[in-house]
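Go through this chain for my students:
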Amino acid sequence: MDEPGGAIPSAQRPVPVARPNAKTLPQAPAPAPAPTEAMKRAGVAFEAAFLDEMLRHSGLGDLRGMAGGSTAESQIGPMMSRFLAERLAEGAGIGIAPLVAARLAEAAQMAERGAAVGEESADLVAPIPRAAPGGTE
């Protein structure tokens, strides 16, 4: 059904679209800051601590009966799991260290810009639950 005068029916008319310009296009995020050596070391230390806990709970450090039943078994097991965890983290690791270092670099960049906790940095820091006055909730 054509409209009078040969016009295009309103349902078939093209919809005007605003042309994008520099003000309407989304801005690319700022490049991620490079982690410092201290941040990388902190990431490796965190990953080593995580791996140490995982290895201990896996039973790897359980040496009962392997060292003749001496009290040294209870001391050697944790040292062995810590040593393995540190070597794993210093090597290829499981990927936690670079993530921790990157987040530390982002947090440092936000701190340099003066972002207040609760604004831009809210996604980096989990809220700390506060006890109600008097110690009751």
About this structure: The mean pLDDT is 76. The longest helix spans residues 37-57.
